[in-house]
Each structure stands twice: as structure tokens, then as C-alpha cells.
Amino acid sequence: MSNSPENIYSTRLARLRARMAEVGTDLVAVGPTSNMAWLAGVSAHGDERPVMVLVTRDHAAFLMPALNENSVRQHTDLPFYCWVDADGPQDALETMLADFGLNRDGVSVAVDEAMRADFALLLLDALPAAKRQFLGETLGYLRCRKDETEYHQLKENALLTDACVTAAFASLKVGMTELEVVKFIDDFFAANGATTEFASVCFGVNGAFPHHDSGETRLEENMPLMIDLGCRKGGYPSDMTRSGYFGAKPEGYEAIAEIVESAVKAAIATAKPGVRASAVDDAARSAIAKAGYGENFLHRTGHGLGIDIHEHPYISASSDTVLEEGMVFSIEPGIYFAGRFGVRLEDIAIMRKDGVEILSDKPRDLIAAV
Q1: Which of 143, 165, 188 is the last residue of a domain?
Q2: Cis before residue 333, ω within 30 degrees of 0?
Q3: Residues 70 and 156 reside in one and the same domain
Q4: Contact 50, 63 (CB under 8 A)
Q5: What is 309-355 written as a DSSP string?
Q6: Apex 111 CA angle, 110 and 114, nearest 5
Q7: 133 and 177 housed in the same domain
């Protein structure tokens, strides 16, 4: 089977229609979001002009501002219902819905939760009796289960990030600022055909902030550090965290890292098809709590990763999601001590029939920068 973009997007549309039939959804409305990029390969110009893809089990088309028609046409063969600024989108939308032949009194519509509210209300006002839901059971369900094309891109990006974090730790010198390391990361990814999705470089006490904004803190001898980073290439991101030290390890640092690693392993061992995401979170959390540091684990165990850096499934205590083959998510427990340091170890995993495959090849051992 060809992996051409045309084949990928036609396959995804067919899968969406099959899923709509399974769950009894008549209409799916996708805005100019990552959902549109996944379904149609289109990243439409985002402004106040309504644009969306509407999909039924027999029809699919764009509501499209005429201003963007020729540009977007380069990326999709789906029909367009165009409208101009002088007229507004209402008539084009009404024509589109009429052509789709929907029974508006009983239509079940799934609306992209990430689209602008005014776009969604435009559609819902045209379907006042519709049964409304978000995309979780239709397109969202499919996005959670990555295909082989997505897997290979995520794997490639994970290996590139392995190389970047190794090089970043090797580049460290006394007096460097966190932002100088971020610049090194930016340059490394750019040299390898990627862009930086994010980079959080945490020197010393800044490692105690799970979401630290890198700044002017300078690297000193005998300092712990943590680097959380990701790139974007081929439309998909990466995400990993490694912890280490420059000079001598702080007292107790290695022991804490061993506890965090035990939590990663507990989560990996628990993650199987049919297991709830909350059970994976509990496994990691229990390993840290049993060591006496439960109150120092400040966040969920993980998040899904796909076109978006954070997407379903979420690996948290409140998640009822049942894990299935093809789901991709992070496993990233951490222990944080305000005013001292933090240790987090993060890998991205894809669910296989007998457990998870870790996308990174880089060990989670503490990295000695000198």
C-alpha cells in the first residue's frame, strides 16, 4: 500500500467514517486545528474567517473563505464551499448542509473542541436541534492510535532528540547560562532539519520547578541539572527529559534518581493493553510514595503525544482511558525539592500488544557533564 499523502488522508477519512458509524455520529466538524492537519493534511490560515471540514458518512467538504481557496487547493482534493467577505459564510454553510442531506432535527454532531467558539456556534446555530459532543469518540479516538507512518516519524524524532540531549550535556561549561544551552539546542535541531518544539534547561535549584522557563542562571561547579526538550520534524514532535550533574553529585541526588527510575520501570511494567491509564499513574506514584517522597511528585505521570505535544491519552490518577495498541504517551515521574534540585526522567512509549516500546534509545542514567 502506498504511503503517499493522498493515500494517508483518504485512509484516515475512511477510518473516520467507519468510526462514525460505530458510535452513531452523523456529522463531524473539524476546525483549522491539529485535527484538520491530521485528517486532511491542511493547516488552514487561522484568522476570524470561518473555515472547517464537515464530514458525514457520504460527504466531506470544506467551508472555505474564497481568499484562501487557491492556496489551500494545493493541499487537498476535497470539495470547497467558498464564501467571500462581502457575503459572509452563512449562505455557503446552508448550501453545504443542504447538499449533505442531513436530517437536521435528529443529527448527532461532533465538534472540534479546539476550533474557535465563533466557528462552532456558526455551525450549531444552523443545527439548533443537534445532539452535540466533542471529537473524543470519533476523530480523537483515531488520533490516539498511531499508524506506522506516525510511529516511524515519532521514532526518528526521538532518536534525533537522543543525539541532541547528549550533545547538549557535552557542551556544558562553567559560566554558561541556561539560555545559551537553549541556543545550542536550537542550533543542533536546525542543523538536522528540525525545529525546537520547546527546551527547558534547569540549572541547580531551578530543577525543582517542573515547568521552568530557562533564563540567565549560570552553571557552576558541582551543580545538578535537568534538560527537558523536544523537536518538531515531519509534522510531529518529540519529548524527553534527562537529569545529570556538572562536577560532583549533590548529597542524596543519586539515590533520588534511583527512586525516580524505579517509578519509570513500575509504570512501564504496568502499561499493557486493557489497563487503565490511572493504573499506570498509580504504579509510578506508589513507587515514589513507598520511598517516602509522595508529596514531592507534583504532576501526572504522562501525556499523549502525536501531532500535538500534549494530547490524549493522559496518564493521570483521574484518567479512565483504557490503553490500547498504537497509543503513544510519555512516562515522566519526578521528585522535586524546593531550593535544592529536582530529578525527572521522561521517555515516550508506544503501546504494543504485549506492553510498551520506548522510542528513545538513550539510557535514563544520570548524565555526568564533566
Answers
A1: 143
A2: no
A3: no
A4: yes
A5: SSEEEEESTT--PBP-TTBEEEE--EEEETTTEEEE-BEEEEEETTE
A6: 140
A7: no
- 175 with 204, same domain: the answer is yes
Give me the sheet containing 302-304, strands edge to edge. Answer: 311-315, 302-304, 328-331, 347-352, 355-358
Identify any residues that bridge with 285 across adjacent strands, giving them in sequence order. Answer: none
**Cell 547560562, located at residue:** 177
152 and 111 in a single domain? The answer is: no
**In a shared domain, residues 207 and 352:** yes
- Residue pLDDT, tens place only, 282-340: 999 999 999 999 999 999 999 999 999 999 999 999 999 999 999 999 999 999 999 99
Q: List, in sequence order, every residue forming a beta bridge with 199; answer none if it has no partner.
A: 229
Residue 298 has what DSSP assignment? -
Pairing of strands 195-203, 223-233: antiparallel
Locate cell 493493553: which residue? 273
Name the amino acid, one letter, at 273.
P
DSSP assignment letter at 47 = S
Comparing C-alpha atoms, which of 270, 263, 303, 302 is closest to residue 285? 263
Q: Are 27 and 16 in contact (CB under 8 A)?
A: no
Say which DSSP state 87 is in. T
Which of 357, 361, 354 lies closest to 151, judged by CA? 357
Which secondary-structure segment (H or E) carries 102?
Answer: none
* φ and ψ at residue 195, rounded to 5 degrees: -120, 155
Instruction: Give the E-state strand segments of 40-177 in sequence order.
Output: 52-55, 60-65, 80-83, 108-111, 131-134
Q: Which of 322, 334, 330 is nearest to 358 (CA)?
A: 330
The whole-angstrom distance between residue 303's C-alpha and the CA centroid of its chain comes to 7
Mean pLDDT value across the chain: 96
pLDDT of residue 262: 98
pLDDT tens digits along 196-216:
999 999 999 999 999 999 999
Report how far apart the first and last C-alpha atoms of the chain are (Å, whole number).
49
The reported pTM is: 0.93
